[in-house]
Amino acid sequence: MRFEQAQRVKNLPPYLFARIERLIEEKKAAGIDIISLGIGDPDQPTPDHIIEELIKEARNPANHQYPSSVGMLSYRQTVANWYAGRFGVQLDPKTEVVTLIGSKEGIAHISWCYLNPGDTVLVPDPGYPVYAGGAILAGAEPYYMPLKAERGYLPDLATIPTEVARRAKMMFINYPNNPTGAVASESFFAEVVAFAREFNVLVCHDAAYSEVAFDGYRPPSFLQVPGAREVGIEFSSVSKPFNMTGWRIGWAAGCAEVIEALGRLKSNLDSGQFQAIQYAAMAGLNGPREVIDRVNALYRERRDILVDGLNSLGWKLEKPKATFYVWAPVPAGHTSESFTELVLEKAGVVITPGTGYGANGAGYFRMSLTVDTARLKEAVERIKKNLGPVRF
Ligand SMILES: *Cc1c(COP(=O)(O)O)cnc(C)c1O
């Protein structure tokens, strides 16, 4: 049998980490200990009070039936309260918040609400692969906005050709940024709002890392900028701040007509998230801020061990203000792929090639801080002993 795949599936980009995953498997099969700085997934457990809430609510039969596809009003109210407390942004939970099965779900599905085949969507490069993936599934064509070190990894909106800007229906942005660790100010968001107004573009801001920040830095919300709510929405979730990536619960908030469209699409695709999980997420959002501060202190300590350790060997790493990623250029004479393979081969340490996040990631690599300090020290030691000379 041979089943002809739909064009939208054929159009999906190949999985760029396939080669490195094969190499990792080979090493492991050979009994070599591998330290992975590859995956961006919190290693710490979900806080106890959240787990306790799940257990309690899982026992309540009222939660065993189909939930609402847009989420419980009490969950959406909790998200609205959290926005008011954290950002000073007032949201109407009935019309300006929709519950998602993780923010990734909404990021992929928003393209189905607004993009027809052949439409143009502005996507950051390097970037989280789901922006382009969702758009390609909808038949649309991504126009990649390069994120360059010299501009602090903010897209240069002035260089987007006018005919592309006119044609574009949506724009994705993401700050604090994966994979670069870059942050954006409110004044950049204000520029985005002005651009969106001028060209009638729907802005989708991915704020997955808004709570993962260090050294007193507090990332702003896109929605706190005047006019943002008329031109866009913001995606976020409890995944990164509360170590809950496996739980699959998030939200989109902002422009009411967009939230309505996403909710209507979802009512045709899924039946929402298990209510006990919604209660657990509420326990996180209503609970003590210390759980976030504690995990951020841990990432900061790890960041300093890794960055200071490798810089003492002559690497040129910068300390990110937010996210749990360190993003840096590869040494002279290397590509993203050759350097990634060298570090794996010689030191048994997995880092990810920048090209996995787009063509403009070429010449860069990413390291994740989601492994404990002892393993990070060991990674630095192994690189020191075994990597051989590299020149940054
Ligand atoms: C982790 C991540 C997400 C999605 O997380 P969910 O678990 O689906 O909420 C979204 N955007 C970026 C950039 C991420 O790194």
From TrEMBL:
Keyword field: Aminotransferase, Pyridoxal phosphate, Transferase
Protein's UniProt keywords contain Disulfide bond: no
One GO process term, biological-process aspect: lysine biosynthetic process via diaminopimelate, diaminopimelate-aminotransferase pathway
Residues that bear N6-(pyridoxal phosphate)lysine: 240
Binding-site residues for pyridoxal 5'-phosphate, renumbered to this chain: 128, 178, 209, 237-239, 248
Annotated GO MF terms: L,L-diaminopimelate aminotransferase activity; pyridoxal phosphate binding
Catalytic activity, reaction form: (2S,6S)-2,6-diaminopimelate + 2-oxoglutarate = (S)-2,3,4,5-tetrahydrodipicolinate + L-glutamate + H2O + H(+)
EC number(s) stated in the UniProt entry for this protein: 2.6.1.83
All copies of domain Aminotransferase class I/classII large, residue ranges: 33-383
UniProt pathway: Amino-acid biosynthesis; L-lysine biosynthesis via DAP pathway; LL-2,6-diaminopimelate from (S)-tetrahydrodipicolinate (aminotransferase route): step 1/1
Stated role: Involved in the synthesis of meso-diaminopimelate (m-DAP or DL-DAP), required for both lysine and peptidoglycan biosynthesis. Catalyzes the direct conversion of tetrahydrodipicolinate to LL-diaminopimelate.
Subunit and partners: Homodimer.
Family, similarity comment: Belongs to the class-I pyridoxal-phosphate-dependent aminotransferase family. LL-diaminopimelate aminotransferase subfamily.
Record protein name field: LL-diaminopimelate aminotransferase
